[in-house]
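Backbone-to-sequence.
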């Protein structure tokens, strides 16, 4: 499928970009878990990795854009690949924003909500792993594996809906709690920021689905 040297280079860099974004998400998770445990020194170390991996992803994004601009891939595919890379980069940016909120604002998260928040994060990491596997499969053989790829895209989407349901349940519990209104609103902002990660992963899967349609035309 990817025959030219330039296209193979783009493929490798896109996969590296996914890897860097995955590392950014993992570091964000480590930052959050250390914060919940009150281990701020450990959280600072993980937070530094969030920033490092996000910057590394930015560099890869610029390199991919340059190669696409130089003519890698047909124009009909180039725009969608550009969009996918932009969304993956935005995912890392959202993870960094979540870490910024944790470390900068240090919100008070009652222990009764720890489990639900960490469940969302765990599911989000699994969702991203599925997305990364999906992208690897796409680069391997999109033409012959279209049905399998669409099934995996649908699975990524279903995971986002499951996370939405957990977010709703947390919201109901949160605003039914005895926390002050200011605390409720602050934690709702934190929850929304966390849930944006899953939403963006679904967006990437949807864009990949559009690309598969174009390949089948």
């Amino acid at each position: 499928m990817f025959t030219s040297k330039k296209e193979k280079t783009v493929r490798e860099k896109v996969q590296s970009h996914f890897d860097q974004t995955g590392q950014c998400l993992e570091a964000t998770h480590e930052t959050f878990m250390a914060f919940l445990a009150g281990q701020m020194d450990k959280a600072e170390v993980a937070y530094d990795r969030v920033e490092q991996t996000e910057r590394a992803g930015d560099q890869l994004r610029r390199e991919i854009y340059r190669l696409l601009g130089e003519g890698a891939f047909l124009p009909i595919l180039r725009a969608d690949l550009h969009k996918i890379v932009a969304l993956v980069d935005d995912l890392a940016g959202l993870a960094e924003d979540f870490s910024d909120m944790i470390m900068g604002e240090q919100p008070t998260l009652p222990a009764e909500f720890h489990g639900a928040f960490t469940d969302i994060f765990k599911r989000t990491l699994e969702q991203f792993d599925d997305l990364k596997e999906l992208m690897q499969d796409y680069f391997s053989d999109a033409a012959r594996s279209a049905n399998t790829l669409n099934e995996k895209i649908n699975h990524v989407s279903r995971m986002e809906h499951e996370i939405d349901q957990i977010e709703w349940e947390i919201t109901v519990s949160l605003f039914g709690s005895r926390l002050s209104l200011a605390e409720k609103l602050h934690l709702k902002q934190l929850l929304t920021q966390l849930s944006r990660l899953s939403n963006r992963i679904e967006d990437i899967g949807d864009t990949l689905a559009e690309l598969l349609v174009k390949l089948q035309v």
